[in-house]
Amino acid sequence: MINEFFKYLHVSPSMLSLCATQTLYMVFVSLFIGSFFALILSFLLVLTREGGIKENKVVFFILNTVINVVRSVPFIILLVFILPVTKAIVGTRIGTTAALVPLTTFITPYLSRLFENSLLGVNRGIIEAAKAMGASTFQIIVHFILPEAKASLILSVTIGTITLLGATAMAGVIGGGGVGDLALTYGYERMNFPLMLFTVIVLVVFVQIIQSAGNFLAAKARGHK
Fold first, then answer.
1. What distance in Å separates the CA atoms of residue 71 and residue 66, rounded to the nearest whole number?
2. How is 97-157 classified by DSSP, letter by letter?
3. What is the pLDDT of residue 113?
4. pTM of the model
């Protein structure tokens, strides 16, 4: 029965499994790298902004401008524009691993803004109290800001993950593969409606799982049972 189902879709189980694996690989590797750099950038934005612990108008202006510029570039254009950078980093312009470079470049400034909003949501009184106790900037970040912003940061990562899932559909431009590329190449271009519908259902399931996991972890971070 399962074989009949895949014959109806005109794809093999191995192809579907490969595409699902490629999507998960692209999403979570680029998410991990992007989240790391985004967290650093968001802290720099919060610390150097006007009234911040380490106020520095020049640093804030440069970071703020760069993030805004990168965020304003549509992903499909960014994907092609940084092909030389992709080649320099991973040694090739095409493939699933090559897609990690534009995906990471795309998600880093996006998450930076989300993280920045999460960090700015921390009660200013907590930071002032930490400073009054003589805590260093590093101690304020680790022991006061991060614990208070943890739930909001988790939800920001959840949003970023779902956004990346949508972006991977365009990775087919450089041979990135994935479920989205399967829908476009073997579904849309071949007028295979059952396959398009199936891939949409798969992506919807992915999104539901990611959002549910994010909501659960955020609730746990807030201390809810």
1. 9
2. HHHHHHHHHHHHHHHHHHHHHHHHTS-HHHHHHHHHTT--HHHHIIIIIHHHHHHHHHHHH
3. 94
4. 0.88
Cα-based distances in Å from 17 to 45, 93, 222: 41, 24, 36
- Report the distance separating Cα 76 and Cα 156, nearest Å: 23
Element (H, E) at 192: none
- Residue-wise DSSP of 27-92: HHHHHHHHHHHHHHHHHHHHHHSTTSTT--HHHHHHHHHHHHHHHHS-HHHHHHHTHHHHHHHHS-
Which of 67, 27, 37 has its CA nearest to residue 161? 27
State residue 225's pLDDT score.
45
| Half-sphere exposure for 196 (CA within 13 Å, toward CB) | 9
